[in-house]
Write a structure and sequence with these properties.
The chain is built from 21 helices and 16 strands. The chain has 615 residues and is an alpha+beta fold. Among the domains are: 125 residues, no CATH class; 55 residues, no CATH class; 69 residues; 116 residues, no CATH class; 57 residues.
């Protein structure tokens, strides 16, 4: 049957013929435009040669929304669009005529159809042509925003309804176009930079993942300084992909932590093709490969269930927590109106996040909050409660302090003596000699708190002593358990477990039992002045040097005086001058030979990463 005649007739019928699968789709999509529904290409069947034998086109409202049953909730919930509509057209290829016939057809819908004025908004009717894409790229290069570019095209077309796509479609088109065109030629500057870094410092690591078409998808890199930072401070890591590059719209994943001065340090970065489970698995796996397989004890992320699934595969033994920053931001999205209404909901939610150590206290306040504000059926809040063990009271709270320059902090740590409030106190003197200045101030504050603590009661049970501790002027009561056998202490406030320094309650107990210096097992090396002491080796067992230029400068200072001294003495006579010139010439040739060999070595050492990249 002639396809142009079909288009004029308008309505599909059983037995209709089409020359190709694309002809059938165009016809059905044109019919959908007239009726007011969007078409989805659904079931597809091919033979062994790849020829399409049958295809089903469905209404976009076919099927039902799948209920997620994982332990990590999605970032946000969307209104359902699938309501089980049965409208469809199925075509089958007849071998005899090599044409597609309409084999099955349902025209009835179980929902209201869109009005004609909204037809251009339906997904199957929206498409950015290549010409429109070129125009959008030119507008972008000229400095126009995506919004301005879309509005300009709307004016040229005589209205937004005539453009044929939405602003989100244009954004998606530009992102896909740039992602798919990121071949070696366009990524050359980045790869050249990686090559230069590898030549300058062999410990520099990078990996590139290619797809089946040999196109670059994900890129990961770590420099020598990051490797050193991770060795000493990689016990707790935060991974964040909220950053986006301006033009390519590619997620930039960053691994970060904090050093002994409580300053943010970067452990690695990845330019990602997308945020799928395969991409995350590759990034996490490559990160571990760069770090010689050393896994963090804790990794904090946002509420992305895809990221959580990838972590459970690549780092099953690492505790996966959720960043309170992201939780607070999502809370603002869902309940921001409560701030305007002077509601106490934000304060109750904040208390649940930060103030309660005991499960019973948390549950009691949470239930009161939900009941008071009629939130029993709120899906986001209910899902958040199910995973509260991943976010309530997290180690990453100390990252909120102001970021300073680490070199200045290192200099001041060595230049200035810490101010000890009580100079005759052995524990404070010990702490000032051990901790970095920033952490010492925090410890000194806790020690000051301990002087305001009182022992309410004491229960002895053989080697275990239980103390009830509280501030003299009131406050929450804490239970501190002291073991006489190994001199260990455990407080119900869990400050040591969360932040790595002893709390005032534990220090009060230590003072009570006569312990005057900090026991070694309660000094975390990451907070000490010697946090960076020791060598760091990369995955090929080479010592990692953070900045090779510093080493070059040091060697030059060692060589220059000797060379000048020889030159000065050799210049005293013509014979000694000739001998020196001959020896120096031979020495220069040998030095160049050794340097050229060492520059070729990093290139020869590069090999395929087991996660699909090179490093």
């Amino acid at each position: 049957m002639d396809c142009s005649k079909l288009a004029e007739d308008g309505t599909p019928e059983l037995g209709m013929e089409f020359n190709s699968e694309e002809d059938a789709y165009q016809f059905y999509n044109k019919y959908a435009f007239k009726m007011g529904f969007s078409v989805r290409k659904d079931y597809l069947n091919k033979d062994k040669d790849g020829m399409i034998m049958s295809r089903r086109y469905s209404c976009c409202k076919e099927g039902v929304k799948r209920k997620y049953e994982g332990d990590v909730m999605p970032k946000r919930t969307r209104a359902p669009t699938k309501i089980g509509c049965g409208a469809k057209m199925v075509i089958v290829l007849f071998r005899g005529t090599m044409k597609y016939h309409v084999h099955d057809l349902v025209l009835e819908h179980n929902h209201e159809l869109h009005i004609a004025q909204c037809a251009h908004m339906m997904p199957s009717q929206r498409k950015v042509s290549e010409t429109q894409g070129f125009q959008a790229e030119i507008s972008e290069d000229a400095g126009l925003s995506l919004k301005q570019s879309h509005e300009l095209m709307g004016k040229e077309a005589g209205g937004m309804g005539n453009v044929g796509y939405t602003r989100e479609d244009l954004k998606r088109y530009l992102r896909t176009r740039r992602e798919r065109s990121l071949k070696y030629g366009e990524a050359g500057s980045m790869l050249n930079y990686f090559q230069e870094q590898t030549l300058e410092n062999p410990s520099f690591f990078h990996a590139v993942q290619l797809d089946c078409e040999e196109q670059i998808t994900n890129i990961f890199w770590v420099d020598a300084g990051m490797l050193i930072d991770y060795k000493f401070f990689g016990d707790v890591v935060t991974f964040d992909t909220t950053y986006k590059t301006n033009k390519e719209y590619r997620p930039l994943g960053v691994f970060v932590g904090f050093n002994q001065h409580r300053q943010i340090v970067i452990f690695g970065a990845a330019l990602m093709y997308d945020e799928t489970i395969d991409s995350f698995k590759w990034v996490f796996g490559t990160f571990l490969e760069a770090m010689c397989g050393k896994r963090p004890s804790t990794i904090l992320t946002d509420q992305d269930h895809v990221m959580a699934a990838a972590l459970s595969v690549v780092m099953p033994e690492t505790f996966h927590g959720l960043c309170t920053f992201h939780i607070r931001r999502n809370f603002m999205k869902h309940f921001g109106n409560h701030y305007k209404e002077n509601s106490d909901l934000p304060y109750m939610f904040g208390a649940c996040m930060y103030e309660f150590e005991e499960v019973e206290q948390f549950n009691r306040v949470w239930e009161a909050m939900v009941k008071k504000h009629n939130l029993e059926n709120n899906e986001w809040l209910s899902g958040l409660y199910r995973i509260h063990d991943k976010w309530a009271r997290h180690f990453n709270r100390v990252v909120d302090e102001k970021k300073h320059n680490e070199l200045i902090a290192e200099y001041e740590m060595r230049q200035k003596l810490p101010m000890v409030g009580l100079r005759q106190t052995p524990m404070l003197v010990h702490a000032s000699e051990t901790y970095s200045p920033t952490v010492f101030v925090a410890f000194q504050n806790e020690y000051g708190e301990s002087t305001a603590m009182v022992i309410l009661r004491q229960q002895d049970a053989a080697m275990i002593v239980e103390f009830a501790v509280m501030r003299y002027n009131g406050g929450p009561e804490r239970i501190v358990v002291f073991n006489r056998n190994d001199l260990s202490v455990r407080c119900s406030c869990k400050k040591y477990e969360n932040e790595g320094i002893l709390c005032g309650h534990a220090l009060k107990v230590f003072d009570t039992v006569g312990i005057k210096i900090i026991p070694p097992e309660y000094i975390k090396r990451r907070w000490t002045k010697r946090a960076r002491a020791g060598d760091c080796f990369d995955r090929r067992r080479r010592e990692v040097v953070a900045d090779p230029k510093i080493m070059i400068s040091t060697r030059y200072r060692e060589l220059a005086p000797s060379m000048i001294k020889v030159a000065t003495r050799a210049a005293m006579s013509e014979d000694t001058s000739k001998v020196a010139i001959t020896i120096i010439s031979d020495l220069a040739k040998r030095v160049e030979l050794l340097l050229s060999e060492s520059e070729e070595q990093p290139l020869q050492n590069q090999k395929k990463s087991k996660y699909g990249g090179t490093g």
